């Protein structure tokens, strides 16, 4: 019997790779440091319902990804989100509706990766710290010192700075990953008992602390007891406030939001802040995935492509396709 393929990271890239390999008849095993799947597409359960603190929506431009989105729609875990879009620039908030279809997981963003996990074997709460290549097989060590293996191949589907040490056996790939800069994003959520008197449901902000804000509860399938909003700081602001306390971040982003939104903003009934240290690559790449096919190690993730959900999915697809090509 051949050994299974190890995939480190159960975000959309790792699960995209898992799906391709599983469909081709290969046994895979995923390792995920968190308690659930999704990574930056995960949703946070809170007292005011679930909140999409990371990816807000996604677009689909590549035919292969459009096909995947259509399959998720058929399963009921993805729906179109057509918010009343605005932009804020030069001190003015103006409608900015467009024709771009935008998609979200339903009833929460994490529904997509949850459906992708299905009955694939995943070790949750397991942070991999090293990948070793033996004479024939790979083995992995986790943060608690446990060994896992043997595996025929390893796919590393985590942000570049975290992937670098795991790529030590393939120094060329490690050097490429080490050169990738990833920017942080501070995310804050606010919930109001009484809905804010505004038509705005999503806003691209082009000046100041904020990059984007959205009315979480207007996405399809979300709980609607509270008027929930998610605010994202810009990369520059988030980096400058990397070590700020959550209270300071909430206060500043709440203040910036209140200045822009153009209606009375009462004290929120609930607030939350989350720091994404490796939120997005500082620039996009066209690598698809990184591969040392002879060694049997691959790396993928949004940082190998466009730094978006679609780019991450395509990168996982690419890593798995290259592995299958090499086996032929
Ligand atoms: C605030 C924010 C807003 C965003 N908004 C959008 C948006 O609106 N539209 C869009 O298209 N994209 C958006 N993105 C980007 C999008 O979320 C990512 O591009 C995509 O989700 C990345 O997927 P991935 O699988 O490459 O990585 P991840 O989602 O980061 O998945 C990697 C997984 O690996 C796990 N992991 C890490 N290290 C280890 C380890 N050593 N061992 C085991 N497991 C490990 C992590 O816990 C994680 O689950 C946003 C991102 C952020 C942070
Ligand atoms: N905060 C974070 O960490 C991350 C945020 N990400 C955002 O995720 C979104 C995904 O990108 P795409 O899928 O290409 O989505 P998209 O086509 O909706 O947006 C791409 C970009 O175009 C601009 N834009 C698009 N539509 C409008 C509009 N109607 N009015 C004004 N400006 C507009 C805006 O700057 C936006 O960021 C982008 O907004 C990214 O900035 C991506 C990755 C990480």
From TrEMBL:
Pfam families: Amino_oxidase, NAD_binding_8
Domain of life: Bacteria
Binding site for substrate: 57-61, 185, 308
Residues annotated for FAD binding in this entry: 13, 32-33, 40, 56-57, 128, 302, 309
Cofactors demanded by this protein: FAD
InterPro entries: Amino_oxidase, Bac_renal, FAD/NAD-bd_sf
E.C. numbers: 1.6.3.5
Entry keyword set: FAD, Flavoprotein, NAD, NADP, Nucleotide-binding, Oxidoreductase
Catalytic activity: 1,6-dihydro-beta-NADP + O2 + H(+) = H2O2 + NADP(+); 1,6-dihydro-beta-NAD + O2 + H(+) = H2O2 + NAD(+); 1,2-dihydro-beta-NAD + O2 + H(+) = H2O2 + NAD(+); 1,2-dihydro-beta-NADP + O2 + H(+) = H2O2 + NADP(+)
Amine oxidase domain sequence ranges: 108-324
Matching SUPFAM superfamilies: FAD/NAD(P)-binding domain (SSF51905)
Family: Belongs to the bacterial renalase family.
Primary role: Catalyzes the oxidation of the 1,2-dihydro- and 1,6-dihydro- isomeric forms of beta-NAD(P) back to beta-NAD(P)+. May serve to protect primary metabolism dehydrogenases from inhibition by the 1,2-dihydro- and 1,6-dihydro-beta-NAD(P) isomers.
Protein name as annotated: Renalase
Organism encoding this protein: Pseudomonas asuensis
């Amino acid at each position: 019997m051949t050994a299974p393929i190890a995939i480190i990271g159960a975000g959309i890239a790792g699960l995209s790779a898992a799906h391709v390999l599983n469909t081709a008849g290969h046994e895979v095993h995923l390792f995920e440091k968190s308690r659930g799947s999704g990574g930056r597409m995960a949703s946070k359960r809170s007292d005011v319902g679930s909140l999409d603190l990371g990816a807000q929506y996604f677009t689909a431009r590549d035919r292969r990804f459009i096909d995947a989105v259509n399959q998720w729609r058929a399963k009921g875990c993805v729906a179109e989100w057509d918010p009343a879009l605005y932009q804020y620039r030069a001190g003015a908030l103006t409608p900015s509706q467009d024709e771009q279809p935008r998609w979200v997981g339903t009833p929460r963003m994490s529904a997509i990766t949850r459906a992708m996990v299905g009955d694939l074997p995943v070790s949750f709460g397991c942070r991999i710290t090293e990948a070793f290549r033996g004479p024939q097989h790979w083995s992995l060590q986790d943060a608690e010192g446990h060994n896992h293996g043997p595996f025929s191949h390893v796919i590393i589907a985590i942000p570049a700075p975290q992937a670098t040490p795991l790529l030590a056996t393939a120094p060329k790939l490690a050097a490429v990953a080490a050169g990738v800069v990833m920017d942080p994003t501070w995310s804050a959520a606010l919930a109001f008992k009484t809905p804010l008197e505004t038509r705005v449901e999503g806003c691209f902000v082009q000046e100041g602390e904020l990059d984007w804000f959205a009315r979480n509860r207007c996405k399809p399938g979300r709980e609607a007891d509270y008027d929930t909003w998610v605010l994202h700081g810009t990369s520059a602001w988030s980096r400058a406030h990397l070590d700020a306390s959550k209270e300071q971040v909430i206060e500043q982003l709440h203040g910036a939001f209140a200045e822009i939104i153009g209606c009375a903003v009462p004290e929120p009934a609930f607030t939350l802040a989350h720091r994404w240290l490796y939120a997005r690559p500082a620039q996009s790449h066209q690598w698809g995935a990184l591969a040392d096919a002879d060694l049997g190690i691959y790396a993928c993730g949004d940082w190998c492509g466009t730094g978006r959900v679609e780019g991450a999915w395509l990168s996982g697809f690419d890593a798995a396709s290259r592995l299958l090509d090499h086996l032929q």
